[in-house]
Amino acid sequence: MNEADLERPLDGRPDETDINLRAYFSRFSEARLRQYDPTWSDERVIAWDGNFRSDGSLMLVCCERDVEIEEYRAVLEEHIRRRMGIEPA
């Protein structure tokens, strides 16, 4: 799978934020992605990423909307499955 494929959602028409968030995850190394644990608290995920604003949204440039932790987790977990070739449960 090439990087451009990972920047597009599996379904629906993406907005700028959808693409930018997926591009953001595409820059994570596979080693870093393997560190992620879906059982972590929201606070632990925010600390692990290190790029959240004080208001709780991910700091991304050129976005149409804020990315909150729920969307962050869902897209990250989808990205990991797609990039690592893991079938959804």
Note down, in words, how this protein is organized.
The chain contains five helices and no strands. It has one domain. Helix content is 51%, strand content 0%. The chain has helices spanning 3-6, 16-26, 30-35, 42-49, 69-84. It has 89 residues and is an all-alpha fold. Helix 2 (16-26) packs across helix 5 (69-84).
What characterizes the major β-sheet? none
Indicate the mean pLDDT. Answer: 86
Count of DSSP strands: 0
| H and E order | HHHHH
Query: What characteristic shape results from the CA principal axes?
Result: globular
Helix percent band: 40-55%
Q: From the structure provided, what is the oligomeric state, counting identical versus distinct chains?
A: single chain
Number of helices: 5
Give the structural class. mainly alpha
* Total domain modules: 1
Are there runs of 5+ residues with pLDDT below 50, and where? none
Distance between the termini: 20 Å
Summarize the helices and strands and which ones pair or pack:
Layout: H1 3-6, H2 16-26, H3 30-35, H4 42-49, H5 69-84
Helix pairs in contact: 2-5
Brief synopsis:
The chain is mainly alpha-helical.
Features of the shown structure:
about 90 residues; mainly alpha; about 50% helix
